[in-house]
Predict the 3D structure of the following.
Amino acid sequence: MPLTTDTPRAIVREVGLRDGLQSIATIVSTAHKIEWLDAAHAAGQREIEVGSFVPARLLPQLADTAEVLAHALTLPGLVASVLVPNLRGAERAMECGAHWMIVPLSASHAHSLANLRKTPDEVVAEVARIRAARDAAGSRTQIEGGVGTAFGCTIQGAVAEDEVLRLLQALLDAGADRVSLADTVGYADPAGVQRLFEKARALVGERLAAAHFHDTRGMGLANCYAAWQTGITRFDACLAGIGGCPHAPGASGNVTTEDLAFMLERMGLATGLDVPALLALRRRVEGWLAGETLHGTLWQAGLPQTAVPAADLAAA
């Protein structure tokens, strides 16, 4: 479909180098991570979460985040983000020049204690300290507060929507530049996604910047579509659908980058992504992850050879 200034756009933020790799046993070399970055950039990806500043003893898979980030910052037009669990990690992100640092917060009190050893409100207080340190340092690194377990929790069970909304606003009040919502354990359904995202957008508007879904129960793409219907245009995804949460037994991973890109393009949205190039990158990454379970469907069936995009049919 020819692109015009009126063509709706969507961003697929690749999180495989962080969320994906931290959840598997294989440790990918720094050289291969840099190859991944280069190929993803060549395929049109312009937002990539490249790692996390956490102690290497906790996540040896991400011990080289500083080196990977340094390379990411050399790629033209690439917005590089890192996950930071606390002020110390944020200081490293700022020192290394990350464009964005993402601070995870679990709306589930039980999951927050298990995952971060802090209550949700203690995480909010940490964001306030990070903002103060950022401003004092004159750093340009932006802060995104990511509210996870927004649709339920394997430990706690139900998570009240009012609590999710309270925490979104609290993060912004504490100094986050924007916020996002995540279905950490794969409990979300499209109706619930549309309802919560509509409420969140009514509360914080365009500062609700992204949706992060796991495909644990096969509803990841449907949930992305439901969020898009509320106005969300940035979606997290992992190449080959890797990743997950240690507190979500049986989780199959994140929404698959190549499947999501294909869906969005078929819907007539401009993503800037070269889907065949993403499939080729998937094959390379598969070689680095021998023995690991990968996910997704497009790689099995391939791209349609004769189908006409739905958007073109509608315009005919």
